[in-house]
């Protein structure tokens, strides 16, 4: 490969800093799509090279940037070696990864259902945990509940907001169908993506409403399942399904699982927002025609702050108080049904607290026009020692 040829882009990955035995900072690369055959870790210098792998930079570009940053030259052979390791681990967005992705997708589609039971406790333990969480919830009186907003944090950290959101849902008339909008954290799709696979959980099998997905695709004039492998290991919908199963207490229901992109993420954000506008309008129109017992659920977290997520300074309570003020401003915009202003506020700050669920929050409100949104709760799951702090909310949408 010539020095003036662009190197392939790094795939979306979860990158976690750690210290080795020599107390040097390294970075572990985790493939949340679970396609990579082996774990990879890089040094601080390697991490800098990763930040340059956007599909546009050449070796010479990286050498120049590296010299500016570190005051020394890096050899082209060193860059090539890191690219080779990443390629073998299927961490680059190139043809080799595309083939591996297609093979894994075929396996996913051939399976009887999306089945992640191995990653969860037994049915008894999971039901007991969720029942305990829901027992602490306060239901908001709602005559016609049309939607809820709940976290997608793990059950323990998200418990306060899960409790209020799902207590409200449990108190409402039972629905036959739940459109569950989640966050596509690390998938390939740049637009909304559904899956037709049923969900097999420790609590049983939940069928997906394929007819509804077909009707939605017809209304949008677009395929929704091209990248449905993104659902295979994504947790933001799965967590809602567990809670729905507990709330339903054996009553049958169907789900419509859709992952949403981030409309604040990059230069393609405008296209993403337009796509979500279309999805929201499509859902609104389809629900008007097929209103029988449908509720929309947004599985949405808010800010992600702390050194674990890239902040330089150690977290303090004063800092978290500032995050709370920022979050409450954002949630007030949602509560006032100013969802466009909500996106504008995130973009105005370059989403500096890393709100991950703008897409599904925005789409949920666009799909339920003219319905009041009541904020039921706000929670900070803060871990100062681990430098991992995530915030979340609970809300009810309807009259």
How would you characterize this protein structure?
The protein has 399 residues and is of the alpha/beta class. The protein has two domains: 14-102, Outer Surface Protein A, domain 3; 114-398, 3-Layer(aba) Sandwich (Protocatechuate 4,5-dioxygenase, Chain B). Helices cover 41% and strands 20% of the residues. It contains twelve helices and 14 strands. It has helices at residues 44-52, 59-70, 76-88, 95-110, 123-135, 155-171, 210-220, 235-248, 269-289, 317-335, 339-348, 358-367; strands at residues 14-19, 25-30, 40-43, 114-115, 145-150, 177-183, 193-194, 199-201, 204-206, 254-260, 294-299, 301-305, 373-383, 388-398. Strands 5, 6, 7, 10, 11, 12, 13 and 14 form an eight-stranded mixed β-sheet that branches. Strands 1-2-3 form a three-stranded antiparallel β-sheet. Strand 13 and strand 14 (388-398) form a beta hairpin. Helix 6 (155-171) packs across helix 8, helix 10 packs antiparallel against helix 11 and helix 11 runs antiparallel to helix 12. The N and C termini lie far apart (62 Å).
């Amino acid at each position: 490969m010539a020095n003036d040829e662009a190197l392939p882009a790094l795939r979306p990955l979860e990158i976690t800093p750690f210290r080795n035995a020599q107390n040097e900072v390294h970075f572990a690369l985790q493939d949340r799509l679970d396609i990579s055959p082996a774990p990879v870790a890089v040094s601080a210098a390697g991490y800098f090279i990763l930040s340059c792998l956007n599909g546009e930079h050449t070796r010479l570009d990286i050498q120049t940037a590296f010299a500016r940053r570190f005051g020394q030259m890096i050899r082209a052979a060193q860059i090539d070696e890191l690219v080779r390791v990443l390629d073998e681990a299927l961490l680059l967005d190139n043809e080799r990864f595309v083939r591996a992705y297609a093979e894994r997708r075929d396996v996913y589609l051939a399976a009887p259902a999306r089945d992640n039971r191995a990653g969860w406790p037994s049915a008894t333990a999971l039901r007991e945990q969720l029942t305990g969480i829901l027992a602490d919830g306060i239901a908001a009186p709602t005559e016609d509940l049309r939607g809820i907003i709940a976290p997608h944090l793990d059950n323990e950290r998200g418990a306060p907001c899960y409790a209020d959101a799902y207590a409200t849902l449990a108190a409402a008339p039972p629905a036959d169908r739940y459109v569950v909008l989640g966050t596509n954290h690390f998938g390939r799709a740049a637009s909304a993506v559904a899956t037709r696979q049923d969900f097999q959980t420790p609590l049983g099998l939940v069928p997906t409403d394929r007819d509804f997905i077909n009707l939605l695709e017809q209304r949008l004039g677009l395929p929704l399942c091209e990248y449905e492998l993104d659902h295979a290991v994504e947790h933001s919908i799965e967590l809602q399904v567990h809670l729905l199963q507990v709330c339903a207490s054996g009553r049958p229901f169907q789900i419509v699982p859709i992952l949403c992109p981030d409309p604040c993420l990059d230069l393609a954000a405008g296209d993403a927002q337009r796509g979500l506008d279309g999805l929201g309008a499509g859902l609104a129109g389809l629900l008007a025609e097929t209103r029988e017992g449908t509720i929309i659920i947004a599985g949405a977290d808010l800010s992600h702050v702390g050194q674990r997520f890239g902040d330089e300074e150690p977290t303090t309570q004063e800092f978290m108080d500032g995050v709370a003020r920022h979050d409450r401003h954002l949630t007030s915009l949602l509560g006032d049904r100013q969802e466009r202003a909500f996106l504008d506020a995130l973009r105005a700050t370059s989403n500096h607290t890393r709100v991950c669920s703008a897409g599904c929050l925005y789409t949920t409100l666009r799909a339920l026009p003219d319905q009041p949104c009541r904020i039921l709760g706000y929670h900070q799951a803060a871990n100062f020692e681990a430098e991992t702090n995530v915030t979340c909310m609970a809300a009810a949408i309807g009259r």
